[in-house]
Amino acid sequence: MHKALLLFITILTISGVAHAAGDTQADLNQSAHQHYQNADAALNNAYRRLMTILPPERQQQLKHAQRAWLKYRDAHAEFQAAPYKGGSIQPLIYSQALIELTEHRSRQLNALYQDESTH
């Protein structure tokens, strides 16, 4: 129980999801989901931008890699949230996993863009 509470507090702190003390779990879940949607939009922008500078063969490689990565991201988020299945915190844990992985992938794609655009 203490481990779960510590994890919950850490997630809220890292994600910037924490709000006023009166927020409900549903509010926190919704806020985390919105944060994920913003991260996903940024990822899509980074992907599209990178695709515009790649030759066709590399575009196909990136498309294949991105599809595989999306499957991994979703499966990993489900894995991380599984211990909380049925609990009100489960959507928050799931969204936080999606946020973390999606923001990391955006950084990767942006770095690839920088590398590719200098060649």
TrEMBL record:
A Pfam family assignment: LprI
Family annotation (Gene3D superfamilies): 1.20.1270.180
Lysozyme inhibitor LprI-like N-terminal domain mapped to chain residues: 21-109
Signal peptide: 1-20
Keywords: Signal
Superkingdom of the source species: Bacteria
PANTHER family cross-referenced by the UniProt entry: PERIPLASMIC PROTEIN (PTHR39176:SF1), PERIPLASMIC PROTEIN-RELATED (PTHR39176)
Name of the protein this chain belongs to: Lysozyme inhibitor LprI-like N-terminal domain-containing protein
Organism: Oceanisphaera marina
Lineage, broadest ranks: Bacteria, Pseudomonadati, Pseudomonadota, Gammaproteobacteria, Aeromonadales
